[in-house]
Amino acid sequence: MRVIAIDGPAGAGKSTIGRALAARLGLEYLDTGAMYRAVTFAALGSDVALDDSAAVGALARALRLEVGERGVFVDGVDATRAIRTAEITGAVSVVAANSEVRAEMRSRQQAWAAARGGGVIEGRDIGSVVFPDAELKLYLTASPRTRAERRVAEAGGDVDEIERAIATRDHYDSNRRDSPLVRADGSIVVDTTGMDVDQVLAYIEGLMAGKDQPAQ
Fold it and tell me: Ramachandran region of residue 109, left (φ > 0), alpha (ψ -120 to 50) or beta?
């Protein structure tokens, strides 16, 4: 399989770069964060408590989930917009730390890639856990302020508040027991601070072509 793994913290540009890179390479794209948001959406819409690990795990295994170009569908319901609400954003870290949920989503991610012969796949643990033998492993990051400003540009809000929320999410994701956010062995760090999409893509394409690149 030809897998390009993109990991990194919230707001680093993973989704934007992942989609654009997939289009240029003629590969399909998978946002694994949307999968965890979808499970969170389903749990909040049921009587399942988010801290009930076994119940949330069972819900994840039973879920009919579609994440793709059409959007995100949870048991046939279009949840594309709903999974991006503040409520989901505030709760998803708890669900993403659930080992049973992670095992189920990991299996689905691997099956997705196997069915397509690979793809550009982004998340928090793609290069470190899900696809450790990926053709290229990238770790996208940016300064917390830059990441907050990007979120404000996309959805509005107070930049200071969002920067604090990002710092909290970083700490939670980096310190969870199961598949924490880490730089995978063999991954290349790309700091997107001060870079636009075209500059980041050019840098990555240079890496793939074997060209010498300046340190990021």
Answer: alpha
Place of tokens 């996309």: 154
Reported pTM: 0.90
Q: How many CA atoms lie within 13 A of 197 on its CB side?
A: 11
- Arch. (CATH architecture) of 2-208: 3-Layer(aba) Sandwich (3.40)
Question: What is the band of 213 on the pLDDT scale with cuts at 50, 70, 90?
Answer: low
Highest mean pLDDT among 2-16, 99-113, 183-197: 99-113
For residues 11 and 147, is the Cβ–Cβ distance under 8 A?
A: yes
Burial class of residue 154, CB neighbours in 10 A (0-12, 13-18, 19+): exposed
CA–CA separation, 197 vs 199, rounded Å?
Answer: 5
pLDDT digits (tens, 9 = 90+) for 84-108: 888 998 899 999 999 999 999 999 9
* Domain ranges across the chain: 2-208
Please tell me whether residue 107 adopts helix, strand or coil conformation.
helix
Instruction: Indicate if the pLDDT at residue 209 is higher than 70.
Output: yes
End-to-end C-alpha distance for the chain, whole angstroms: 28
